[in-house]
Design goal:
Elements: H1 2-16, E1 35-50, H2 55-65, E2 69-79, E3 84-93, E4 96-104, E5 112-128, E6 133-152, E7 155-172, E8 179-194, E9 197-206, E10 212-225, H3 230-281
Antiparallel strand pairs: 1-2, 1-10, 2-3, 3-4, 4-5, 5-6, 6-7, 7-8, 8-9, 9-10
Helix pairs in contact: 1-2
């Protein structure tokens, strides 16, 4: 029974790898020369879309579906160009190290932004019992497409679909060699950033083999801007530009009144000069 449990659990971990699924970023890049960091807490669960072939495996899958894995992670980003940044993230639970880069496809002249990225995540873990053990190493290569809409100066909605190619190396007790498998996965993240606070729902699915599953993750985090995010500063500039015409209009009466006063003084000087000239003629 324990061997079967490890086998089924190994499949679940090879699907989601206990690796974090979060995006925790919009389509905007970090401003050149500036940095930003985030910290997040969440939980991850699995739902089997295809049950096992026998009663024991089905019962184990049902038990696994009732458990949610805690997620504790943090990340750091730095802007290397006007439209390019890169970052790293670390998940203490379950133990993921990731690197990624992002390039903005459009500027910040509009509140709607898009970007494309490339990421690499590494996760390694194992389990050991009295008579069974397992060790699994997972490498994910992901290509996300970022979309976001800035509805305020420091707030935005974002949606990030992604393609993931996963390579899994697994070794169970009683096996002399490791087993290497790979599979494409599809998923995405939907979230909102409200100033320093972020909330996100993400999921990924993999179909094939004896079982199929969908993994979802709910995450809440805080963001610390060491510098400025591009869309924050640019959105503020756009807002200020939109308010400038009303300010100019309010200042126009003062300028016109000054001109009227100046013009009014000129005739008086002319009349005085005229009177002086007339006196000289007499």
């Amino acid at each position: 029974m324990l061997t079967r449990f490890i086998s089924v659990l190994g499949f679940v971990l090879s699907v989601n790898g206990c690796s974090t699924l979060t995006s925790m970023q919009t389509a905007r890049t970090t401003k050149k020369g500036k940095s930003a960091a985030y910290f997040a807490l969440g939980s991850q669960g699995v739902r089997f879309t295809k049950k096992g072939g026998d009663a024991d495996e089905s019962d184990i899958q049902t038990a696994i579906e009732k458990v949610r894995i805690p997620i504790l992670e943090g990340g750091f980003r730095h802007g290397f160009g006007d439209s390019w940044d890169a970052g790293a993230r670390f998940a203490l639970i379950p133990g993921t190290i990731g690197l990624d880069t992002k390039y903005a496809l459009n500027g910040a002249s509009t509140p709607f932004g898009t970007a494309v990225g490339l990421g690499l995540d590494y996760t390694s873990f194992g389990s050991k019992g009295s008579s069974s053990s397992a060790k699994i190493t997972i490498i994910d290569t992901s290509v996300p497409f970022y979309m976001s809409y800035d509805f305020a100066e420091t707030s935005a909605f974002y949606f990030t679909p992604r393609f993931i190619y996963r390579t899994v190396s697994s070794k169970y007790s009683g096996e002399s060699d490791s087993k290497l498998t790979s599979a494409p996965m599809f998923g995405g993240a939907l979230g909102v950033m409200l100033g320093w606070f972020a909330a996100e729902y993400s999921m990924v699915s993999s179909f094939g083999g004896q079982s199929s599953a969908i993994i979802d993750q709910i995450t809440f985090g805080v963001r610390i801007n060491v510098g400025e995010i591009n869309h924050h500063s640019q959105y503020a500039k756009l807002t200020r530009k939109a308010s400038q015409p009303s300010e100019d209009i309010s200042n126009e009466p003062n300028d016109s009144s000054n001109e009227v006063i100046d013009e009014g003084k000129k005739p008086e000087k002319a009349t005085k000069n005229g009177k002086n000239k007339s006196k000289k003629i007499k």
